[in-house]
Design a protein that fits this description.
- The complex is a heterodimer of chains A (about 160) and B (about 525).
- Chain A is built from 7 helices and 5 strands; from the N terminus they run H-H-H-H-E-H-H-E-E-E-E-H.
- With about 160 residues, chain A is an alpha+beta fold.
- Chain A has 2 domains: about 60 residues, Arc Repressor Mutant, subunit A (Orthogonal Bundle), CATH 1.10.10; about 80 residues, Glutaredoxin (3-Layer(aba) Sandwich), CATH 3.40.30.10.
- A 5-stranded mixed β-sheet of chain A has the order 2-3-1-4-5, with helices on one face.
- Helix content of chain B is about 40%, strand content about 15%.
- Chain B has a 5-stranded mixed β-sheet with strand order 2-1-3-4-5, with helices on one face.
- The chains are: A alpha+beta (about 160), B alpha/beta (about 525).
- Chains A and B meet through helix 2, helix 4, helix 5 and strand 5 of A and helix 1, strand 12, strand 16 and helix 18 of B.
- The structure holds flavin mononucleotide (FMN), iron/sulfur cluster and FE2/S2 (inorganic) cluster (FES).
- The site of FE2/S2 (inorganic) cluster has 12 residues of chain A, from helix 5.
C-alpha cells in the first residue's frame, strides 16, 4: 500500500483504533503498521503518539531502539542474513561476502532496481542447518552461494510477474 | 485403507523444502489413488534428517529422511504409503530409517519435556489429550495454590533461560504477594545463537507451554499471561496463535477453565529484534511498549514486574517442564540429573556438526559424550577445535574442557556457563581472535546503552582486539583488553556487559594457545551472577 495516500491515513487510524486499548499497545501497533506498509511511514507517528498520550519523540525513540522496525521504504523483498555464531561455524562469513558482492550492496541498503533490501539478523533458530537467511517470512537453510543466487533469481522473476 | 503420513511443519523442515515435499506427496497420492491422511506434525529434533517423513504402520511409525522433493516419486515407487511394516522393510528405500522410535539418536534420549514433540499434531487438542496432555492441569485444578508451588519446588526445577534460578522460589514469592492483578510472562525471546529448544517446543508441542503457563496462573492467582516471542520466529507465531485459539474454543483457556471457577487468558506479543529484550526486566519494559532498557534490581519482577504488578517471568522450557512435574510428581522429575541440577536439559547441538539437533538428557553428561554419540563429527569432516556453550555470552571451550559434566555448578567452576543449553561447534579453521572480536561487536550492537562499561567498553574492546589481530602493540593491548574486561565484569548493570568477557577472554586465551604465545590473559573467572 502506498503509505502517503489518503487511504493510508485511514488504514493507520484503523490499526490504532483496533489495538490502542491493549495494555502496552505501542509494539503491537508498530508491528501492524509495518505489516501493512512494509515500514513505519512518517505520517503514522503523530496519530500513534496522540492515541497513546505520548510525544512523537517518545514513539520515535521506541522505533529506533528495535532493529526490526524500519522507517524507510524497503525494496520489494527484505533479505536477512544470519550473522550469529552457529552460522559462522558453518561458513556464513563467506556467504555474507558473496551476497554483498553479488547484490553490490551492504547491510541496510537496497539494490538499484529496488528489488532487495539487505539486513543482518542474529540467529533464526535454525542453527544446525546454517548458513541461514530469511526472505520475508520464509527461513531458508543450508544456503550455499549457488543456492543464494537461485533464490535471488526466483525473487527477480516473481517481482516482474507482479507488475 | 487410509494411511497416515507425517511431514513436519516446523521452521527447520520448512527451511529445507518441507512444504514442497508435503504438497508433492499429496499430489502424487491423489494421482495414484492412494488414500492418505497427511499430518503436519512438529519436528522430532533430528534436524540432520529433516524433512523427516513418517508413515504409520502396523508395527509403529517408520521414517524416511532427509526427503527432498526429487525423492517423492521414488518413495511412491517403493510403495511407501503401505501400512504394513514388512512392505517397508523389504523394499528398503535408500532413505528408509526403520522404526522412528528405534533411531539411536532418539532412543538414547531421556525425553520428558519433549516426549510429544514430533509425535503429535501440534495444535490438535485430542491428539494432545491422547498423549497425556492436560493431566498436569487436571491435577493442578485439584490442588490449593500452595500445593502446586510445593510440587514445583520439590522438582528442583531451575530456570532454563540461563540464570538457573529455582523456579519454586520465584513462584512462592509471587504467591506470597497479596491478591491483586498478577501476571505470567513467558520469555520466548530465545536470542542465543545455537539454541532452538524453545522454538521446537512452541512449534511441536505448543499446548505444553500453554498448559504450563496456565498451571503457573493457578499457582499464584494470576489471570493473564503473555508470551513474549521474538519476531525472528514467524512459524512459531502462527502455530502458537492457532494452539491458543483452539485451547480457547475447548475452554482450556478463558473464564471457568475446564468447568472450574478459574480464569486464565493468554496472548502472544512479538518482540522486535533486540537481543537485550531476553533479559527479563528489559522484556517487561518492551511488553509495556517502551524501549527495552534494563531495570535496576531490586525490585524483583516477582514483586514489581509487568505494569508494576507481581509477575512470574519464566523461560519456555521452564513452563514446558511443569505439566510433567504436576502430572507425575516433582519427586520423579528430581530423580533425574546430578547435584543441584535436577531433571533434564534439551542440549542443542549446532554449528559445524554432522548430526545437529535437540538431545534431551539428564544433567551430568559431557560434551565429549554428546559429540561422540550424537554429533558424530563435523559437517565438513575437519577436526573439532572449540565449542561455544551457552550462547553468545558463554565461554569457548577447548578439548581439555570437554569432559566437564554438563551441569550448572561444574560449568561455573571452570568459568563457563550452560545457559540455555546451546552447543556451537567450530572446526580447526576457526580464528578465535575473530570470534572474540565478534563477541565485543555483538555487545556493541545489542547493548541497551544504560551503563557505560557495557556501552563504551564494548566499543573499545572491539578496537583493541582489532589492534591485537593486526599485530599492533600486542602485549600492551592484551593488558588493556584484560583491564577492559574486568571493568565490564565488575561494573555492568546486567549480564550483557557483565558476561561478554566470558567468550572474549576464553577465546583470546585459546587464540594465544593456538599461537603458542607466552603472554597470559588473566585467569580470573568472571564473577557476575549468572544470567
Ligand atoms: C542479555 C540477556 C539475554 C537473555 N535472554 C534470554 C532469553 O532469550 N530467553 C530467556 O528465557 N531468558 C533470557 N535471559 C534470562 C532472563 O533474564 C531471565 O533470567 C529468565 O527469563 C528467567 O526465566 P527462567 O527462570 O525460567 O530461566 C537473558 C538474560 C540476559 C542478561
Ligand atoms: S550491561 Fe549493557 S545491556 Fe545491561 S544494562 Fe548495562 S548497558 Fe544495558
Ligand atoms: S546462528 Fe544462524 S540461525 Fe542460529
Amino acid at each position: 500500500m502506498d503509505a502517503t495516500s489518503e487511504h493510508s491515513n485511514i488504514k493507520i487510524q484503523q490499526i490504532i483504533d483496533q489495538l490502542s486499548d491493549k495494555p502496552g499497545a505501542l509494539l503491537p501497533i508498530l508491528h501492524e503498521v509495518q505489516h501493512a506498509f512494509g515500514y513505519i511511514p512518517a505520517n503514522a507517528i503523530e496519530p500513534i503518539a496522540k492515541s497513546l498520550k505520548q510525544t512523537a519523540a517518545e514513539v520515535h525513540g521506541v522505533i529506533s531502539f528495535y532493529r526490526h522496525f524500519h522507517t524507510t521504504k524497503a525494496g520489494a523483498h527484505r533479505v536477512e542474513v544470519c550473522r550469529a555464531e552457529a552460522c559462522q561455524a558453518r561458513g556464513s562469513r563467506a556467504l555474507e561476502a558473496h551476497i554483498k558482492e553479488s547484490l553490490d550492496i551492504d547491510y541496510h541498503q537496497t539494490t538499484a532496481d529496488r528489488n532487495i533490501t539487505l539486513d543482518p539478523v542474529y540467529c533464526l533458530g535454525n542453527c544446525s542447518c546454517g548458513p541461514n537467511i530469511r526472505v520475508g517470512d520464509d527461513i531458508i537453510g543450508r544456503v550455499s552461494n549457488d543456492k543464494f543466487d537461485k533464490v535471488v533469481n526466483a525473487l527477480s522473476t516473481s517481482a516482474l510477474e507482479i507488475k | 485403507m487410509t494411511t497416515t503420513v507425517y511431514v513436519p511443519r516446523d521452521t527447520t523442515t520448512l527451511s529445507l523444502d518441507g512444504n514442497q515435499v508435503a504438497s508433492d506427496i499429496s499430489a502424487l497420492a491423489n494421482q495414484q489413488d492412494k488414500s492418505i491422511k497427511l499430518v503436519r506434525n512438529g519436528s522430532r529434533g533430528m534436524f540432520w534428517l529433516e524433512p523427516l517423513v513418517e508413515v504409520e504402520t502396523d508395527k509403529g511409525r517408520v521414517a524416511y529422511g532427509p526427503v527432498q522433493p526429487e525423492d517423492v516419486e521414488s518413495l511412491f515407487a517403493a510403495d511407501f504409503t503401505n501400512a504394513s511394516f514388512d512392505a517397508h522393510s523389504t523394499q528398503q528405500h535408500a532413505l528408509f530409517l526403520g522404526l522412528t522410535e528405534e533411531i539411536p539418536y532418539l532412543k538414547k534420549q531421556q525425553r520428558l519435556s519433549f516426549a510429544k514433540a514430533g509425535v503429535i499434531d501440534p495444535t490438535d487438542l485430542d491428539d494432545y489429550i491422547a498423549h497425556d496432555g492436560f493431566k498436569g492441569l487436571a491435577k493442578a485444578l485439584q490442588l490449593e495454590p500452595q500445593g502446586i508451588v510445593d510440587e514445583v519446588s520439590a522438582s528442583g526445577l531451575r530456570g532454563r533461560g540461563g540464570a538457573a534460578f529455582p523456579t519454586g522460589i520465584k513462584w512462592q514469592t509471587v504467591l506470597n504477594c497479596p491478591p491483586q492483578q498478577k501476571y505470567i510472562v513467558c520469555n520466548a525471546d530465545e536470542g542465543d545463537s545455537g539454541t532452538f529448544a524453545d522454538r521446537l517446543l512452541m512449534e511441536a508441542d505448543p499446548l505444553a507451554l500453554i498448559e504450563g503457563m496456565t498451571i503457573a496462573g493457578l499457582a499464584v492467582g494470576a489471570t493473564q499471561g503473555y508470551i513474549y516471542l521474538r519476531s525472528e520466529y514467524p512459524q512459531a507465531h502462527i502455530i502458537l496463535n492457532e494452539a491458543i485459539a483452539r485451547a480457547y474454543d475447548r475452554n482450556f483457556l478463558g473464564d471457568a477453565i475446564c468447568g472450574s471457577s478459574k480464569t486464565f487468558h493468554m496472548e502472544v506479543r512479538l518482540g522486535a529484534g533486540a537481543y537485550i529484550c531476553g533479559e527479563e526486566t528489559s522484556l517487561l519494559e518492551s511488553l509495556e511498549g517502551k524501549r527495552g532498557l534494563v531495570r535496576a534490581k531490586p525490585p524483583l519482577p516477582a514483586i514489581e514486574g509487568l505494569f508494576g504488578q507481581p509477575t512470574i517471568v519464566n523461560n519456555v522450557l521452564s513452563f514446558g517442564a511443569v505439566p510433567h512435574i504436576l502430572a507425575d510428581g516433582g519427586e520423579v522429575y528430581a530423580s533425574y540429573g546430578m547435584g543441584r541440577s535436577k531433571g533434564t536439559l534439551p542440549f542443542q547441538i549446532a554449528g559445524n556438526v554432522n548430526r545437529g539437533g535437540l538431545v534431551e538428557l539428564a544433567f551430568g553428561t559431557t560434551l565429549s559424550a554428546l559429540l561422540e554419540e550424537f554429533a558424530q563429527g563435523t559437517a565438513n569432516g575437519r577436526d573439532m577445535h572449540s565449542i561455544q556453550v551457552g550462547g553468545p555470552l558463554g565461554a569457548y571451550l577447548t578439548k581439555d574442557q570437554w569432559d566437564t559434566p554438563l551441569e550448572y555448578e561444574s560449568f561455573a567452576a571452570i568459568g563457563a556457563v550452560l545457559g540455555h543449553g546451546g552447543i556451537v561447534v567450530f572446526d580447526d579453521t576457526v580464528d578465535l581472535a575473530e570470534q572474540a572480536q565478534f563477541s565485543m561487536e555483538f555487545c556493541v550492537e545489542e547493548s541497551c546503552g544504560k551503563c557505560t562499561p557495557c556501552r563504551i567498553g564494548s566499543v573499545r574492546g572491539t578496537e583493541v582486539i582489532g589492534k591485537i589481530r593486526s599485530g599492533e602493540n600486542v602485549d600492551a593491548n592484551l593488558a588493556l583488553l584484560d583491564d577492559l574486561c574486568e571493568t565490564m565484569i565488575d561494573m555492568s548493570l546486567c549480564a550483557m556487559g557483565g558476561m561478554t568477557p566470558f567468550p572474549v577472554q576464553s577465546a583470546m586465551k585459546a587464540y594465544q594457545a593456538q599461537l603458542g604465545s607466552q603472554t597470559q590473559l588473566s585467569d580470573q573467572n568472571p564473577s557476575v551472577e549468572g544470567r
